[in-house]
Amino acid sequence: MSDTSLLEVAVLGARGRMGSEAVKAVTDATDTEAVAEVDQGDSLQELVTAGARVAVDFTHPDAVLDNVRFCVENGIHLVVGTSGLGESQLDQVRGWLRDRPEVGVLVVPNFAIGAVLSMKFAETAARFFDSVEIVELHHPKKADAPSGTAARTAQVVAQARADAGVGPSPDATTKDPDGARGAQVDGVNVHSVRLAGLVAHQEVLLGTEGETLTVRHDSYHRSSFMPGVLAAVRAVGSRPGLTVGLDKVLGL
Ligand SMILES: NC(=O)C1=CN([C@@H]2O[C@H](COP(=O)(O)OP(=O)(O)OC[C@H]3O[C@@H](n4cnc5c(N)ncnc54)[C@H](OP(=O)(O)O)[C@@H]3O)[C@@H](O)[C@H]2O)C=CC1
Ligand SMILES: O=C(O)C1=N[C@H](C(=O)O)C[C@H](O)C1
């Protein structure tokens, strides 16, 4: 029988690398319980049947949007850990939320507290340096590149530079047939490394006359994401509408 004092949480992608850690974290915490563990081939209706109040999604960039729609339409608050939601998808989510304004959707590019802080540090530093580039390094089973964390970091860094009137990073490259200078995300060069042995890592490289600053974060184990997952699960129900980033939950 369900203990009514516990927050009922469903995990989507429950058999995956992140989902299985999330099930364990939600089960081990004293104020939450995992009432549904949904994975590929399972019906989303299980969330409703199980009485989930909050869901957390760690599935796949191709699947996540349908899951968001289902949760919003069924009044289930959702924490989105899955990467790959760009601005046009976020606009779709805002549209669905207009019909269910009481529902909270919290999209979190990275749950590791250190990663959240590193994005803030890079954002703060951005206006003081002529050049900025991002290197993200992940395990080779990752489906998407660049990482959601790198895309979000590029976005906030680019916005900080624009707000301060800083122009593009200086770069004399005119010949790059193989894309060696990386992808351009919001005008910031992003380089994606996929390497056996890694989990999730990122460096923001900032440079100006005579000095450089490197903001680096490393997740060595997926347990590093769990305090952030639990904080998001606890907070999402009291944040109706769309929120992007754990920084808001942490008061940064
Ligand atoms: N925000 C953050 O801090 C973090 C985010 N992530 C993101 O989380 C996502 C998952 O990563 P990871 O756990 O490593 O990936 P995994 O491939 O290990 O896990 C994904 C799981 O979801 C399942 N799945 C796929 N489609 C669906 C669907 N439609 N409904 C239900 N389950 C589905 C997969 O099944 P099958 O294998 O059979 O397809 C698999 O079991 C990625 O987008 C990743 O970038 C990862 C780490 C941290
Ligand atoms: O796939 C992963 O592993 C990760 N995905 C997220 C991302 O795309 O940024 C978060 C973290 O980097 C791990």
TrEMBL record:
**Top-level taxon:** Bacteria
Question: For the Dihydrodipicolinate reductase N-terminal domain, which residue ranges apply?
Answer: 8-111
Q: Which residues bind NAD(+)?
A: 13-18, 39, 81-83, 108-111
The enzyme class is: oxidoreductase
Record: residues binding (S)-2,3,4,5-tetrahydrodipicolinate = 139, 148-149
Keyword match Oxidoreductase: yes
Q: Which InterPro entries match?
A: DapB_C (IPR022663), DapB_N (IPR000846), DapB_N_CS (IPR022664), DHDPR_bac (IPR023940), NAD(P)-bd_dom_sf (IPR036291)
Keywords assigned by UniProt?
Amino-acid biosynthesis, Cytoplasm, Diaminopimelate biosynthesis, Lysine biosynthesis, NAD, NADP, Oxidoreductase
PROSITE patterns assigned to the protein according to its UniProt record, in alphabetical order: DAPB
Query: Which subcellular locations apply to this protein?
Result: Cytoplasm
Q: Is the keyword Oxidoreductase in the record?
A: yes
Catalytic residues of the enzyme: 138 (proton donor/acceptor), 142 (proton donor)
List, alphabetically, the GO terms of the cellular component aspect: cytosol
Q: What is the protein's major site of localization? A: cytoplasm
What EC number(s) would the UniProt record show? 1.17.1.8
Q: In which pathway does it act?
A: Amino-acid biosynthesis; L-lysine biosynthesis via DAP pathway; (S)-tetrahydrodipicolinate from L-aspartate: step 4/4
Q: Give one Pfam hit by family name.
A: DapB_N
Q: Which GO terms describe its molecular function?
A: 4-hydroxy-tetrahydrodipicolinate reductase; NAD binding; NADP binding; oxidoreductase activity, acting on CH or CH2 groups, NAD or NADP as acceptor
Q: Name one GO biological process term.
A: diaminopimelate biosynthetic process
* Summary of the function given for this chain in its UniProt record: Catalyzes the conversion of 4-hydroxy-tetrahydrodipicolinate (HTPA) to tetrahydrodipicolinate.
Quote the subunit structure annotation. Homotetramer.
The similarity comment for this entry is: Belongs to the DapB family.
Q: What is this protein called?
A: 4-hydroxy-tetrahydrodipicolinate reductase
Organism equals Allosaccharopolyspora coralli
